[in-house]
Amino acid sequence: MGENRLALTAHLMRRAGFGATREELETLAEREYAELVEDLVNPERFPPVDEDVLERYYGWLEGVQGKVWSGVWIYRMVNSQRPLEEKMALFWHHVFATGVSKSDHPPSSIQQIKMLRRLGLQDLRTILLELSRDPAMIFWLDNNENHAADPNENYGRELLELFSMGVGNYSETDIKMAARAFTGWTFEQPLGLYPCGFYPSRFTYREDDHDESEKTFLGESGKFDGADIIDIIVRQPATARFIARHLYNFFVADEAQVPAWGTVPPRDPEAIDTLVKAYMDTDGDMRSVMRTLLNSDFFKESQFQRVKSPVELVVGTLKLVDTNRFPDTNVMSYPTATMVMGQQLLNPPTVEGWHTGKEWIDGGTLNERVNFAVNLVADTSKPGVQAIMDRLEKDGGSLTPSEFVERCLDLTGPIEASEETRAALLRFAESGGDLDMTSSENGESTRERIVRMLQLIVASREYQFA
Amino acid sequence: MKERSQEPVLVVLQLSGGNDFMNTLIPYTSGDYYDARPTVAIPQEDVLPINDTLGFHPSAGPLKELYERNKMAIVQGIGYPNSNRSHFRAMDIWHTCEPHEVGTEGWVAKAVRELDPRSENVLTCVSLGKGLPRAVVSSGVPVTSVDNLEAYGVMTGIAEEERLEALEIFKHMYTPAVGAQAAMDYLGNTGLDVLKGTDMLKKAPAEYKSDVEYANNGIAKSLRDVARIHLADLGTRIFYTQHGGYDTHSRELLLHEQLMTELSGAVMDFYTDLEEHAAGDNVAILVFTEFGRRIRDNGSGTDHGSGGGAFIIGPRVKGGLYAEYPSVVPANWLNGEDLRHTIDFRGIYGTMLEQWMGVEAAPIVGGTFEQVHPFA
């Protein structure tokens, strides 16, 4: 098994999932890359996470702004045998950014994420249709205030601007028409908060509040309903291009932020063209588009070209140290960890979603990111840390400082480190001389040096990149 | 000895969750107040009166003392149009000064950009507590986020003597390299800023001596950190602190009593601490909350409402009552259930920015709003 193959498998699992343990990687790397991609884009080949166990263990999932549920979502990211399914849910959560902040109604936000998980790899028409019927979205963008007699444009506008086509590809009139087509699409609350507690809302269509009149939208005319608008939207090449750019930014390499897309060309126009073609050839089938993306050379060549989102950093580190394999109360602390790094699940800051790339990083968040990972790898009771120690021991004999650095970079990634980082790590390795793996009397200090090396590696700049 | 910097310093203290202003500064002679609050009212005989109609919560004695020393301006009835009762949205509005659209730039961050346009000092703005409030966030504005002053910085989980070596390696790993991609460089600079901040902040706990004994709670700890950093004279112009737990939907009387005790004690200790060090003359504190609470109680607590209050405290503050206390007469209630605000919060930010910090307010708060004049 070549080193490149292992590195490529690790890259695939970081991007299409949230990382993998070394053992998992080695098993996966035995198989053909394209086969791995097929498994990823066909999640139904693998069993889902056992909902009963989660319900039984965690009980009141909706509580405290959905924080418990967010913790359990992180548990799923760590444990799901369908990693791309979870990753797509997170991808769409970035794009269709809906904040629980406005509604204070976690069950509806949770319902939305479940929908995104269920539909994430289907065709865009299905996804947008369900999104438009989603109570959390309807409330977030005021479609419940969008009446036949008094239209509210918020949802119509964002559907075009942020969820499908991007600015510059439609007129203000198109927005008005789209808004009118979605009049009457609202939700109802089956049970009141007091005294029933939280129950998810459900979609309802009010025919008497729907604008039946003739509408012209993107050059087509008819007595359009919301579904007709979506039919037209998903056929637009602009939509294919916009979604392609989102996918590229999330799965391939950091792009300019959405508001700049009207003026800043894509980082790799050919890659976008490839994704657009995959979209247009399959009527927006996300499974096909993702297959194309993950099998492409531009994807394979994009290792470490994205700053990890806080969720990726936290879950990736949990995978590295191989922890939280069973339900456990400590998953509750992870939503706070991602929040202080700038990403509160279920609560993106605005409808534009989280700004990504280097915008994840500032003095405060860098502290949090570094300290989270540094503290976690220091815990030698974690199976993943133990496994690294065992492997180094199994190497037997002693490691020169340079071997010590290279082995650790390999076992934590493999991570591609710059010359500067390698030199800095080597300084540390050299300060203790050769790493003696033979004599048991040095066992404790050897272990401490390994832990310190792992801490330094996860504190590096390189570790911030996926 | 080098003279202390005399540049104005602002300490923002955010009461998170929506403080019940009616039970903080109580209209203790109003029958309407007691009618609306059969359960969650402060009995007249317990109120600490400051005049014939208003008085402080019984646990807010230290605030009353500051008020009587003429060092505390009370801005009554602060709010914004189209009040939204969601905490997060309300807090966003306070943080970004954008009541209509969702804003992304924090007002404090915009002020910091004016105060330190070339980002020369990583400590120009220091936020205390976990995570950064959006008020201090804006692209390209450095802000230092300190949760625990003793343990500020990266790799704080490592024992002190070994941490120095680890930090040295960290510094080498983050040193920008020729030809590196832009994001790598940016990360490098941010990492080095963190080290710079760590280095400067070390001085704060090391040099600090005080006779004031702060209580053992979150806000007291944060304000003590503010005092220590301020006294170390590191050039910080704006501090941001938070006191959480004000979302008193139930068991309010019990919870609010504790909050008032913590808050007023911490503010008084902080005030005294700076006074003792003759370092308070250039400091003003702004205490605010994202909204007030519903006028009627719910039998155990109060639900989200509007029309809160703010305090401006400092040696150079001209104490007194500012703006008007919202009417508690039912006919005047907003939407039949809420206090109607009498002054826009952006005018209060404007007051602090222009009259205290010397920074033009309009571009930061998005317009010109009525200000108060609480500085002597």
Folded structure, characterized:
The complex is a heterodimer of chains A (466) and B (376). Helices cover 57% and strands 4% of the residues of chain A. The model of chain A has no long low-confidence stretch (mean pLDDT 92). In chain A, strand 3 (215-217) and strand 4 form a beta hairpin. Chain A has 466 residues and is mainly alpha-helical. A two-stranded antiparallel ribbon of chain A has the order 1-2. A two-stranded antiparallel sheet of chain A has the order 3-4. In chain A, strands 5-6 form a two-stranded antiparallel sheet. Chain A has a domain at 383-464. In chain B, the strands form 2 sheets. In chain B, strands 1, 5, 6, 7, 8, 9, 10, 11 and 12 form a 9-stranded mixed beta sheet that branches. In chain B, strands 2-4-3 form a 3-stranded antiparallel beta sheet. Chain B has a single domain (9-365), classed as Alkaline Phosphatase, subunit A, CATH 3.40.720. In chain B, strand 3 (48-49) and strand 4 form a beta hairpin. The two termini of chain B are 29 Å apart. At the A-B interface, helix 7, helix 20, helix 21, helix 24 and helix 25 of A face helix 3, helix 5 and helix 6 of B.
Helix content of chain B: 25-40%
The level of helicity of chain A is 55-70%
| Parts with pLDDT < 50 across at least 5 consecutive residues of chain B | none
For the secondary structure, the number of strands of chain A is 6
The CATH topology of chain B turns out to be Alkaline Phosphatase, subunit A
Low-pLDDT residue spans of chain A: none
Mean of the pLDDT scores of chain B?
A: 92
Oligomer: heterodimer
Radius of gyration of chain A from CA coordinates: 24 Å
- Beta-strand percentage of chain A? under 5%
The largest β sheet of chain B comes out as: 9 strands, mixed
Instruction: Count every helix of chain A, treating DSSP H or I runs of 4 or more residues as helices.
Output: 25
Strand content of chain B: 5-15%
N/C terminus separation of chain B = 29 Å
Mean pLDDT rating of chain A: 92
Basic shape of chain B: globular
